Endosomal/lysosomal proton channel TMEM175
Amino acid sequence: MADDHVQSSGRMQAYSDAIFSIVATIMILPVAHTEIPKDKNLREVIFYQLLPKILIYILSFFVVAISWSAHVWLFQIIRHADDVTTLLNLLIMMIITFLPFTFTLMGTFPEFVLAIVLFSVCIIVLGLVQALVVLHVFRNPQTMEESIRNSENMTAVRNALLLRVLVNAILCTFAAVFAPVTSVISYVFLVMILFSPNIAVQLSKLISKCSGGRFQMSQEVVRRGKSYEMEVNKERVECYSDGVFAIVATLIILDICEKDIPSRTALKYEYKNDLVAALDHDSSVFLAYFGTFATVGLLWYIHHSLYHHLQRTSRLMTMFNNFSLAMIGGMPLAFKLTSLYNDTDFYNNERVAIQLSCVIMFLASISQLAIFVTALFRPEQDLTDSVKVGGQSHYYLLVKLLVYPTVSIIIYIISLTSDVLSVESFHVAQLGTPVLFFILWLIAVKIQRNVQEVLNPEEHPPIQEGINNENQRM
Amino acid sequence: MADDHVQSSGRMQAYSDAIFSIVATIMILPVAHTEIPKDKNLREVIFYQLLPKILIYILSFFVVAISWSAHVWLFQIIRHADDVTTLLNLLIMMIITFLPFTFTLMGTFPEFVLAIVLFSVCIIVLGLVQALVVLHVFRNPQTMEESIRNSENMTAVRNALLLRVLVNAILCTFAAVFAPVTSVISYVFLVMILFSPNIAVQLSKLISKCSGGRFQMSQEVVRRGKSYEMEVNKERVECYSDGVFAIVATLIILDICEKDIPSRTALKYEYKNDLVAALDHDSSVFLAYFGTFATVGLLWYIHHSLYHHLQRTSRLMTMFNNFSLAMIGGMPLAFKLTSLYNDTDFYNNERVAIQLSCVIMFLASISQLAIFVTALFRPEQDLTDSVKVGGQSHYYLLVKLLVYPTVSIIIYIISLTSDVLSVESFHVAQLGTPVLFFILWLIAVKIQRNVQEVLNPEEHPPIQEGINNENQRM
């Protein structure tokens, strides 16, 4: 019975995670769908046309990610989601899916008061609805997590939660008020959203102090279980990340379905009803697709291996993860550029497209490595035994995490120094990387077996079991 | 330790579910993005231009859903996913995301041999990779679910699994072979994919019999736990459904972001830098968005309430669920048509758009009702106590499930008989429906409280607890 309802609240959270991650990621499409003429200098296009859009994309990705972490923080207090909470959560989702529109509007017309106000109103309404959820849950304590229901100072917990969900709304109120005066001040407030978790913590301390203890704010809610430092729990980070990986993989095929299937008339007049010729015309697109998918898939695989060995995640690690995900969301752009410049010599555009792909791959994978390095500073709390320094899978995980940073640096350097590198060979390299991981796995199994034989020369353990132990830890 | 690895395999499955559901749903986009001139007769456009595309969409939705259920069936035998299984699963995902392309190609050029062969090759490769997973898992039995590892006849289980994952490949081999001769026979084989779960069962019985017991096929693998009749378990159906709901909700805003943000030049010359006027021009789109989101969100909410009370799901129920999801995937089309014909009088197009939306809403919601009705035939196995006939929440759930069929029929009839109905009032009605559900909840709580007072007139239980019990069951 009780389990039933954890399930119930769990499904609502998983659904919310999926929506948050998709909303964050589809913001790349206005960037990826920018019309780029084939005969222009890609380097200039990137700096003058794409870079502003990319920055807006990364900003919006972080704004959504921050809203998501507030949402996770709020819903981890709920054990049973009743109908009112579920309906309010749907309202929250409606506002979240509308965010990309207001954000794109603000990105397109940054100097218009209306654009700033519309975005701010979205965030304010979001905060107010979340506050309603807090109030509803605290009026019905039986829907709450037991640890909070039994906590000594429930009012303090409620106040902390209210402040946490309302801090963005407060910042946006200021942004909206100042918009008619000067948009610069508005943007200062809007950028502060990125630091809202920290602002909430500092504000709560300040209010507790200034009110002489009358308005107590308790952070204890976040200290139970696997989460600490106002941090979301690992399972929900995984769920959110999976959403990003899944939508990125499918956004690419979406483009192919819409653009690379010839129309019946084109087939008749351009290709004389020869479907092979028509598809061959776009063959580079398919190679680009499989190459890009292999990269996205393997980055998911590394993410999966890494998070499997994390015991908890700090705020810094989630920040690295968000940055990594934002970069992975950029893969559709890399796909588009590499498939666009597959056969052109203008301005070295082909090599520039490869270089941009390398930069995206490097930033995405180095951020994953950064998560592991951060965890190594607090191995006792953050890591499972086998990947701590000296653990049996430590080097295997480290090497996995180093593959993509290394590969992308090497390709980048080759593309700088020589012009043997074509888009085709780049994609073939992408497609070949899984083989690298398979070889890595074989080596890891081999070493593991040797170590076991050295340690227990008499025992001769069943070889399958030896492999199994290794696998289980990978 | 053991729990760790259920988690590990669980994450891979959740990720796969997300990809499957997104792939199934984005196939609506070629339909929704069909260019429809505003001044044409929508009824004719629907019958001659949209209907063939819609049929292809529904077919492809079911093909993906069937592949997904085979995938679920395969992976429920795996307890620990090792690196090889994970990498093979990524390969499966790569093929799955490529399916929409081959399917669209086949839909566009149904008479071309190449199109049939390409699609068939996709399914064949998919089957072969899944067979590799089966062989790998059975060579490493320690990665399997314990119930299967300890089963008496593992070879029979393996044979049944191999047949199940290869049956589509076999059908497609025939389709590909017959394609150069006549495409009609090919399509007969391709349509048989829709019945492949049944075909696999019948084939396995046949093979067992004909070989005189030498090739045994065991169905026992599917009879453990919550699943029966080769059926997937409830949690994965929920996960898959969530993916569809989430992507539908976000596909709509994607269109708005790409089309309804005016360019700087348009703003300058068409609207004289008046952003309010420019947005007002598209105001109907925003109303359509909020109305559609409310509908999708509430259909999720009903789905959530229904599946919360299901104890297990039969194959028929999953078929109804897939049909319901396919219809919900059609909501972006309804959104597009209603927002396109908001102010036009040509050929009653406005009313036709509303009628099509009603049909989609009706089919989506009546299929949900059909799931419940099916479950009512085997209440002991399928339903929790509170929603069985006579249970305290039986009528509440029934009324919830009846809301959308009723509302859509009423709107449809009104649109047939009078012309007072505009797209605006339709969307306002959509937006008003959540209020209906809130009122329903209030009534349910009220009744629940009265019943408790009648039953225990002396006890005077804490009222909050009374609400709580009700909530927990909803």
